[in-house]
Amino acid sequence: MRILVTGASGFVGQHLLRELLSSGDHELIGGTLTGPPTASATLTAEEIARVKWVELDVASTSSVSAVVSSVRPERVYHLAGQSSVSRSFAAPLETWDVNGTGTLRVLNALQQLNDPTIRMLLISSAEVYGAVPAEIQPINERSPLAPTTPYGVSKAAAELASLQSSAAGALQVVVARSFNHTGPGQDERFALPGMAGQLRRIQDGEMEAVLRVGNLHAKRDFLDVRDVVRAYITLMEQGDDGGVYNVCAGEAADLAALVERLVVLSGTGARIEVDPERFRDVDVPLLVGDPSRLRTLGWLPQIPLDETLRDLLRSIGITPVEGTVATNLTSGDRPLFGKRVVVTRARAQAAGFSESLRKMGAEVIPFPTIRITDPTDPEPLHRAVADADGYDWIIFTSVNGVERFWQELSASGRDTRVLAGVSLCAIGPATAEAIEMHGARADIVPDEYVAEAVIEALSAETTLWGSRILIPRAEVARSVLPTSLRESGAEVVDVAAYRTVPDGPDADEVRRRLLAGEVDLITFTASSTVRNYVDILGAETGDALVASIGPITSRTARELGLSVDIEAAEYSIPGLIEAIRRFYEG
After folding, report:
1. What residues are paired with 54 via a beta bridge?
2. Which regions of 275-384 does DSSP assign to beta strands (E)?
3. How far apart are CA 155 and CA 83, in angstroms?
4. Which of 65, 138, 473, 526 is the most exposed place for a label (fewest CB within 10 A)?
5. Taking the model in full, what pTM does it have?
6. Is the predicted pLDDT of residue 107 greater than 60, yes or no?
7. HSE (CB half, 13 Å, CA atoms) of 71?
8. Beta carbons of 347 and 287 less than 8 angstroms apart
9. Residues 471-515: pLDDT tens digits?
10. Is residue 227 helix, strand or coil?
């Protein structure tokens, strides 16, 4: 296989070449503006010699055309680009020319070969999503493009140009939206390598034992670069033509805690000090992606972040202090310090909950027992949304229902304006916030999140008799609410907006940890998470306690043979977090 890698001498490019060299008998061509690496922390001299290096400037049409016509690649990993967000503000035109127009030059040159079997992987970025509220993270590939930086805009443009080529049948294109990644060989312009570089200079006696940092109040979805390049190869081989895939871990790491860990591993004893010259406001305090689509291809991250930090230090000449084990990568109030907590919530909704547990000191064990997917029969939802402006009330019982409703509304070519004459009811503050994200506002948010409270709140606001009410919710849900509304004289359309299906990855590992007494708490956020947990693992909880989001979920747990030790007084994720906090604080 003849493979062209643009940006081949860069941080990710070298790791990708190493992985390709070890994974098959390929003819590898490394396109680079600066020539082959010489004093590399990644590729060895022998590995460099096994790659054919060519000069390639994606900002030059003639350079791109000459290389592509000469090499005639069968596969192209397009990594070349201006990769610094901060530089994009100082040099927006350069960023656009390299990332946006540069990608178009590569696409045009490939199309000139008249071979629709050519396959290109475009390396894009999570920056295309912009500032996404924490309540609707982790971010999946259906999230709208709303970049807030020149870098993000240039990457969004590159995506659109690439997907247009795919749609036209000119060549096959797969888009990888990469979240944060780090590892040996990364430039010190980036946060963690920059900190590691300071620690090396402290160790060498070149500066006092003070690690100067900027704003560390951010949480990011980090992967080891070696897991990232394995994902790229998986996408090249198995990704759908025209498909877009998040490349991420699905879990947020606290940047402050990562830096603290680097200091411990370095053995320097450095004091961390905020430098006003380095401090910048954090526009996006939380950025975490949903890797579910990529994981369906069989990819899983293999390298723990703690090992990444160790290898980062080793690559710059620091021998990590052995015997230091990371118990947690968070900071702050820690009533759950040292506790191991299983989170059974769907991966696409677990980020905020998991992060709150980590902030209390927990080691989170993700075990999403449910996955959110389309309803078995989508037609009732299609019809209901088509008639959205014909209802008096729409009752949203969850964030999932909100998101699926607005996705369907958008797919029908309409937007929030059609709801101008419709009143909205939200069950819980998170659901209300999700509605606000779509430019609407809930008219009612009941004080309690049970059917009786909803009916009482509606009755105080309107006459239920004769009202047309739509309830877009889970395919399998309790009938109490629609039945009670009908008994009050309302015409109720109860439609499945989504369904939850079992999703129990790493079941054997969770079972092993339960039996070994390595789990302290299991959390359930809905009856479906309990049912699917028991379907996958049985009623086995080992020595772990059980925490439930409310009485309905608790009842399901007890019916299935589980004991419930903690129950939220407020039937919401914040309520469950508070109940867990109070329990462990005593």
Report:
1. 31
2. 286-287, 340-343, 363-366, 370-373
3. 10
4. 65
5. 0.60
6. yes
7. 31
8. no
9. 999 888 878 889 989 999 999 999 999 987 766 657 888 888 898
10. helix
